[in-house]
Amino acid sequence: MLIVKSLHIVFMVSWFAGLFYLPRLFVYHAMADDQQSKDRFKIMERKLYFGIMTPSAVLTVVFGTWLWLGYGITGGWLMAKLAKLHTPALRTRRLSEIRTRGDVAGVLTRETCVTIFVCCGAC
Q1: Could you read off the pLDDT of 39-94 as tens digits, one per residue?
Q2: What is the pTM of this model?
Q3: Pick from 59, 44, 53, 48: which is nearest to 9 by CA?
Q4: SS3 assignment, position 123
Q5: How does the average pLDDT of the chain come out, rounded?
Q6: DSSP letter string, 38-107
Q7: Rounded CA gap, 6 and 27, in Å?
Q8: pLDDT of 101
Q9: Cα maximum dimension of the chain
Q10: DSSP 122
Q11: What was the pLDDT predicted at 80?
Q12: Contacts of 96 (CB under 8 A, 6+ apart)
């Protein structure tokens, strides 16, 4: 079980690192002047979101469920943790919506900056 717990923590840290870095990439993308830089940031955003964040989020939940089934459903800490689980999941979903809407393709608007700030605390 120690290996499962370690993997759960490793993937959770990877997921959260992506949550903190993706808004920064959005800002860099919005501030880019030339098309080559914009294309580079699109690739970086896509690789981070689909190559690192999504698998890390899925594996975090898988190993967390494995721990849950291994240790049982006892303890108030589990209910508190499950209640807090929606926050990073909503952040990931909101960042995906910003990314697919294309708000970062042009000038960084005030609305987009406020959305990113409220969503992730980074702008």
Answers
A1: 999 999 999 999 999 999 999 989 988 988 887 766 676 677 666 666 666 666 66
A2: 0.66
A3: 59
A4: coil
A5: 77
A6: HHHHHHHHHIIIIIIIHHHHHHHHHHHHHHHHHH-S-SHHHHHHHHHHHHHHHHHHHHHHHHHHTTTSSS
A7: 33
A8: 60
A9: 55
A10: -
A11: 73
A12: 49
Q: Is 1 helix (H, G, I), strand (E, B) or coil?
A: coil
How many whole angstroms separate alpha carbon 61 and alpha carbon 65?
A: 6
With H, G, I as helix, E, B as strand and everything else as coil, classify residue 110.
Answer: helix
Place of tokens 């721990």: 67
Q: The tokens of 16 are what?
A: 């959260």
pLDDT at position 95 over 70: no
Cα 2–Cα 67–Cα 85 angle in degrees, nearest 5: 120
Distances in Å between the alpha carbon of 1 and those of 14, 54, 56, 64, 121?
20, 24, 19, 11, 34
Token digits for 98? 């910003």
Query: What pLDDT score was predicted for residue 88?
Result: 65
The tokens 């903190």 sit on which residue?
20
